[in-house]
Design brief:
Molybdopterin biosynthesis moea protein, domain 2; Hypothetical protein af1432; 9 strands; globular; HD/PDEase_dom; HD-GYP domain-containing protein; HD_domain; HD_GYP_dom
Length: 360
């Protein structure tokens, strides 16, 4: 299979991976043959990438650091929590659920089991979902990324659980706002942006009332918009004044937000997001944490379709651990749009004169 932007999909293409709905269920399943109408509907839902079957790439599969079953269960849990909160404003001044913390500890334990089993894999968060599901899928992605960071830092099980639960629930404060505000299809106005900033304190106030949620987990909600140089909110904390859990969640939050499509912009590539993080080292984020984070991210994930500076089109088949920006690429189209009779591979770590010009 290969991953391509939806603008390159055409009638007759066959889906190789499902597109997920807001709650994590399949919106369109594997094996569906696309029509122009399907493509238009998916575009209207905010889906910008698809995994398609291709005769040259039948043996290529994205490396999944967390199993689909685990991810779907986590998305369903986050979805239920947030939907219940938006429809039950009475929870604002009391605990949300008597066993919410335990539920999220169990969910993160399953994520952690998958991460431990796949230790060493470069991260590629390749799930595809509709725009209405962004908040729920984003929360799970942040939980996964934070877990990887915690493992890399050598956290013990208790620390990993505190971090993981806090990461999965870091944006829970968004539920105090009307749906149309946190599901809007355009960027925030100045007034809306100031209002939405309150989600950090609202989230903290919700979580700190939960007897089975650590206060350190609650601080992930409170401090994930604080910045290393003191320019963040709500309290303008800087450097070590910001708990390390919240610093980790902040990096994961920004990375996944950048690489996810939004209604008002396309998603950035992993490489572009990594450049953004480094550009803000020791300004927004601790540069040492950035280094740890980026050492686990695949710049060009397996199954990514790319165009080389030679004009050739190829699909990433394998990563080079010592140079993730120079993967092995299987050529499926020659310059000028000429198809290949038999696909062949180029190792960009050995062919230094050939570079990736863009992803497709």
């Amino acid at each position: 299979m290969r991953k391509v932007h939806i603008s390159f999909a055409k009638q007759g293409d066959v889906l190789a991976r499902p597109v997920l709905s807001a709650n994590g269920s399949n919106l369109i399943g594997v094996g569906v043959k696309l029509t122009d109408r399907y493509i238009e509907r998916l575009q209207s839902y905010g889906v910008d990438y698809l995994f398609l079957e291709d005769r040259h790439t039948t043996d290529i599969f994205p490396e999944e650091i967390v199993r689909d079953e685990t991810r779907k269960k986590a998305i369903e849990t986050v979805y239920k929590t947030m939907v219940d909160l938006t429809s039950s404003p009475s929870v604002k001044n009391k605990a949300i659920s008597k066993d919410m913390g335990l539920t999220y500890q169990k969910i993160f334990s399953e994520i952690l089991t998958d991460l431990t089993s796949n230790r060493g894999l470069m991260v590629s968060l390749s799930n595809l979902h509709v725009k209405e599901g962004y908040l729920f899928h984003h929360s799970v992605n942040v939980g996964i990324l934070a877990g990887i960071m915690g493992m890399a830092k050598g956290y013990n099980r208790i620390q990993l659980t505190e971090l993981g639960v806090g990461a999965l629930l870091f944006d829970i404060g968004m539920t105090v706002f009307p749906d149309e505000l946190w599901q809007k299809n355009t960027d925030f106005t100045g007034e809306q942006r100031e209002r939405i900033k309150k989600h950090t304190e609202e989230g903290f106030n919700l979580l700190r009332k939960q007897f089975d949620v650590s206060l350190l987990s609650a601080h992930c909600a409170l401090q994930h918009h604080e910045r290393y140089d003191g320019t963040g909110y709500p309290r303008g904390l800087k450097q070590d004044e910001i708990h390390e859990y919240a610093q980790i969640v902040a990096i994961a939050d920004v990375y996944d937000a950048l690489t996810s499509p939004r209604p008002y912009r396309i998603g950035y590539s992993p490489g572009e997001a990594i450049e953004f993080l480094y550009a803000n080292g020791n300004q927004w984020f601790n540069v040492e944490l950035i280094k740890i984070f980026c050492s686990h991210i695949a710049v060009y994930p397996i199954a990514t379709t790319v165009q080389l500076n030679t004009g050739q089109i190829g699909v990433v088949t394998a990563l080079n651990a010592s140079a993730s920006h120079r993967p092995i690429v299987r050529i499926i189209q020659e310059p000028g749009g000429h198809p290949v009779y038999s696909a062949y591979e180029i190792d960009l770590q050995k062919q230094m004169n050939i570079t990736i010009a863009r992803t497709i």
